[in-house]
Design brief:
Helix content: 55-70%
Strand content: 5-15%
Order of helices and strands: HHHEHHEEHHH
Largest sheet: 3 strands, antiparallel
Distance between the termini: 42 Å
Oligomer: single chain
Structural class: mainly alpha
Radius of gyration: 18 Å
Shape: globular
Number of strands: 3
Length: 126
């Protein structure tokens, strides 16, 4: 549990309120959140379908990131009253509104990941 009165928490709230970029990155900045949102752009998926489509994510972390995305209003969790239970996830209208941004971020990454050394600043020691 994080202390909400710590200077770190106060600074985080201040930055999210003052900077649109910081706010956006706080919503999609988890290790797997962008991948989850990207996969859901194609439509509704079950938990196991998401897990299989995102290499390397653990069940625990996927569940945590899905809860955070749901809390932030980017995805919705649909529970079907069946036996066995069936749960699906889909983007909300707010989540769908991120499509253009997610595609632009993806395009930028595809272009620039080819030459990562060219992007790194040269650091010299004095």
């Amino acid at each position: 549990m994080r202390k909400e009165t710590s200077s770190n928490a106060i600074n985080r709230r201040q930055l999210r309120g003052d900077c649109g970029t910081a706010y956006t990155l706080s919503l999609i900045g988890g290790r797997w959140k962008a991948s989850i949102l990207w996969k859901l752009l194609d439509g509704r998926l079950r938990f196991n379908e998401l897990k299989k489509s995102i290499n390397g994510v653990s069940e625990r972390v996927l569940a945590l990131q899905l809860k955070e995305l749901e809390r932030d209003g980017l995805i919705t969790r649909i529970v079907y009253p069946e036996v066995p239970p069936r749960v699906e996830y889909e983007l909300t209208p707010l989540g769908l509104s991120m499509e253009t941004m997610l595609r632009a971020i993806s395009d930028w990454g595809v272009i620039h990941r080819q030459q990562p050394a060219a992007l790194l600043p040269v650091i010299t020691e004095n």
